[in-house]
Structure formats: C-alpha cells, structure tokens
Design a protein that fits this description.
This protein is α+β, with helices and mostly antiparallel strands. It is built from eleven helices and ten strands. The protein is 42% helix and 17% strand. A hairpin with a 2-residue loop joins strand 5 and strand 6.
Length: 342
C-alpha cells in the first residue's frame, strides 16, 4: 500500500502555517476590541452587519444562520440576547407564516453605526495598514479564490460584495437606507467578472422558460454565448439577487455590436437585457426589484435605453416588462423586441 497523500512542499507548509496563525489570532483581536468598545462579540457584529446590509434590514432566521455560518440553536441564542437589548426583533415571516424573520431595530442600526469606526480602525491596524495597495489587491484575489471553495453558494455576499464604496458596514460614513426596501431576506449586489458561470446558468434558464428545450452545450453557440461570455462590468452591467441559499436571480445587459446582434438588438448604444429568477424566488417581487435597480443604473450611466426579446406565450415576463416601461418596437421570428427609453 502506497502513501498517495499530496504532502505540502516546504513553501506551501510555511504559507499554510502563517494562515493558521492569522486565523487563530485575528478573530480574538476583533472580538476583544468589539467587546471592550461596543459590548458586542464579533459574532454579534456579524449578525447585525448581515441584517444591516439587506435593504429591508430583515432576514429569515434560516437565511441569517446560513449567512453567518451558524447553527440555528447558536443563532437563536444570540438573537435572543440581542433581542433583550432591543437591537433586533423577531416576527413571523411575511412570505411564510411558519418561518421567522429577524429585523434590525433602529437601536440595532445605531449600534452598528456607532461600532463601525473603532471596528474599521482595528481592521486597518491588524490587516489593511500592514499591506501595500498592491498587496491589498493580492489579498482580495487570494480570498476570492478561497471563498470560491469555501462559499460557492455566495452566502457571505452581503459582506464580500458591499453595496458601494460609500455605503458599507466597515465604512466610517453613516449607512444609508433605501426608498425601496426590496423583497424581505434578499440583498442585491453588482455582477462581476467572477459571475460568468452564474450568467451562463441564467442564460440557459431564460432560454428554457417554457420547457427544457436547450442544453448547456447549446450555450457554446455564438448566438447564445455572447449573452454571457466576456461580460465586462466596465461597460456592461448586472445585478444579482442573493438570499440565504445563494444567488436567486440576476438581471444584466450586454452592449452587442451590429455584426453580432442579440435577438432583441435595437442599436449598438442600447444594451440588451437578460433576466432569470430561480424557482424558489418567483412570486417574491425579485424580478421587479432586479429590473428597477438595473434600469436605475442605466439612467445614471446615461444609456439611451434597454432592449430585450420576449417570446410569444411568455405572458408573465411581458407583463413584468410592460409594468416597468418596456414597449414593443419590432419583431424577430416568434419573439417581440421590446424597448424602454430613458
């Protein structure tokens, strides 16, 4: 019997042991500072942070447990303690009366706003200020690669994809709310170059809206591949909806050239939309929330509008698109080309 264990090389072992040391020392340092200055454990802070990063400041208990990598008994104990302090409150879920939602109160929101400055100073002291700007970029790439293995469902998306540079939990500016709270228990983030697999999956889902007529292999055909291959956030734009189980929906646009048009092509300066929502997310207002956020981004960016293609018989999608302002402007085979102008 041979030993086939892929033992670490000397350099790999040295790097691994340093990572182990950081994993042991950093949580203790963060916990000590938060308990001293805010009377919160680091896990308390994580719970409140996850709630504060959803636009409704509310998550289902099961989703919050998944997002904080906690068992339900442990989370229930912590939520009870925070509830006694008036920082959170529990109530029956509006989507499922058998489930329980956890909502961050105004006092809880004020607590994390007050705790954030000292917390970010601690993060700077022990991590950020110890690195050069180049090393911070390398750290981002390294941790993204590790999270791809540890968190493939994107449970920690609320913390790893903050809403924007001026509106995040570890920012010294005050957190801001939104006039549109969005669906309960769902957060939204911008699509990135790392979302190619997600966009590919969503493209297939959109193509198979009526029946399983296409396979993953069909996506390699140029007329389909251009909807997701080479997605570039510097020009294109997308919004991903995430709940406690991971991505639950995505809406994105691609600027396609006239010599490689999409089925809903109108003009090179008008991007084409693709939208897909997982079955567990339907009926929760996620499609509308994705669309409104994407269109708002387009207005801000100065796009001429957004186009799309909707097949005959897809009445639900057509109603949704018309509700947010799309109108039929053309015909392509068995599909209508729809357009909303800004």
């Amino acid at each position: 019997m041979t030993d086939e264990t892929p033992w670490l090389t000397r350099d790999q072992l040295r790097a691994w042991m340093k990572l182990v040391a950081v994993m042991e020392l950093l949580p203790a340092a963060l916990d000590q500072q938060l308990q001293r200055d805010a009377d919160l454990t680091h896990f308390d802070y994580m719970v409140i942070a996850m709630l504060s990063e959803t636009e409704s400041r509310t998550l289902r208990m099961s989703a919050l447990a998944s997002a904080t990598n906690a068992s339900l008994p442990r989370l229930s104990h912590v939520v009870s303690r925070l509830e006694k302090r008036g920082l959170v409150t529990r109530c029956p879920s509006v989507d499922d009366r058998r489930a329980t939602d956890v909502r961050l109160t105004d006092d809880g929101y004020a607590a994390i706003v007050a705790a954030a400055p000292d917390h970010v100073r601690t993060a700077r002291r022990f991590v950020i200020d110890a690195l050069t700007d180049e090393q911070v970029g390398q750290l981002d790439g390294i941790t993204r690669a590790l999270l791809g293995r540890l968190d493939p469902e994107g449970r920690f998306a609320a913390l790893t994809y903050p809403r924007d540079e001026d509106d995040q939990v570890l920012c010294e500016e005050r957190l801001t709310g939104s006039a549109d709270p969005g669906p309960v228990g769902v957060l939204f983030r911008a699509a990135t170059v790392d979302d190619t697999v997600l966009l590919r999956h969503a493209t297939l889902a959109a193509m198979n809206w009526h029946a399983e007529g296409f396979t993953d292999a069909d996506l390699d055909r140029p007329e389909f591949a251009h909807y997701f291959a080479g997605f570039d956030p510097a020009r294109d734009h997308g919004v991903v909806a995430v709940d406690g189980e991971g991505p639950v929906g995505v809406a994105w646009v691609r600027f396609l050239p006239a010599d490689d048009p999409g089925y809903g092509f109108v003009a090179e300066d008008v991007p084409e939309l693709t939208l897909a929502v997982e079955s567990r997310g339907r009926g929760r207002g996620i499609g509308t929330a994705l669309l409104t956020r994407l269109l708002d981004a387009g207005r801000t960016a100065g796009w001429g509008g957004v186009s799309l293609s909707v097949e005959d018989g897809n009445t639900g999608a057509r109603i949704l698109y018309e509700r947010v302002g799309f109108r039929t402007v053309g015909r392509n085979g068995d599909s209508d080309t729809m357009l909303v102008r800004f």
